[in-house]
Amino acid sequence: KRVGVLISGSGTNLQSLINATKDPTQNINAEIVVVISNKPNVDGLNRARRADIPTVIIQNKEYKTREEFDLAVHEELVKRNVDVICLAGFMRILTGEFVRKWRGRLLNIHPALLPLFKGTHAQRQALEAGVRVSGCTVHFVEENVDAGAIIAQQCVPVYPNDTEESLTERIKEAEHKLYPSALNLLVSETIKLGTDKKLYWK
Ligand code: GRF
């Protein structure tokens, strides 16, 4: 399967996807064929370049509307025959039109155990709620933010002296294992998204 990864930042999850898909011992039926960033000069772009993966910068600020920006991203993905999209720290909410076109083939990773702590600053929300465990979730993307069918989750402990940074770091370590394994579930056709928006296992 041909995978496109959308990023906006440091790209540590992108790196974990690059490493896993290039590792022959993991035998994941996926190749990252393009990395698209809505921001120039982010570290994730350098990670892609180091791995010889084509990069494209599509800056949202150059488009008048969300629809036009999303269409530019969509067209780039179609041009490169992408089958599956992984959002990896992509800080834009995609339009319903885009999501509908890619339903069942569009994954996101979120730094909390959904359905808790949706949206931004999920780690801060977890600390404020005083939970003793949090974690990360890979899910299919639906029009409502952080609401699609859950594919995989990993929990991590929250310690009394945790800061947003230390918790973020611990969650990221879990993310870097979870995302490749969830992608593998999709590209191996072990799971799929039903028309009822639920997850189905083979
Ligand atoms: C991750 O914590 C992910 O859960 C969230 O954005 C962050 C991206 O980090 N959606 P990175 O760019 O992969 O390092």
Overall mean pLDDT: 97
Strand content: 15-25%
* CATH level-4 homologous superfamily: Formyl transferase, N-terminal domain
CATH class: Alpha Beta
Helix content: 25-40%
- What is the distance, rounded to the nearest whole angstrom, between the alpha carbons of the first and last residues? 18 Å
What sequence of helices (H) and strands (E) makes up the elements?
Answer: EHEHEHEHEHEEHEE
Any idea what the radius of gyration is?
A: 16 Å
- Rough shape? globular
Compact description:
It is built from six helices and nine strands. It has helices at residues 12-22, 43-50, 66-79, 96-101, 122-129, 164-187, and strands spanning 2-7, 31-37, 55-57, 84-87, 106-110, 133-140, 150-157, 191-193, 199-201.
Task: Report on the architecture of this protein.
The chain has a single domain (2-201), classed as 3-Layer(aba) Sandwich (Rossmann fold), CATH 3.40.50. The strands form 2 sheets. It has a 7-stranded mixed β-sheet with strand order 3-2-1-4-5-6-7, sandwiched between helices. The chain is of the alpha/beta class and 202 residues long. Helix 4 links the parallel strand 4 and strand 5 (106-110). The radius of gyration is 16 Å and the shape is globular. It has helices spanning 12-22, 43-50, 66-79, 96-101, 122-129, 164-187, and strands at residues 2-7, 31-37, 55-57, 84-87, 106-110, 133-140, 150-157, 191-193, 199-201. The structure holds 5-O-phosphono-beta-D-ribofuranosylamine (GRF). 5-O-phosphono-beta-D-ribofuranosylamine binds next to helix 1, strand 5 and helix 6. 5-O-phosphono-beta-D-ribofuranosylamine is lined by residues 9-14, 44, 88-89, 109-111, 136, 172, 175.
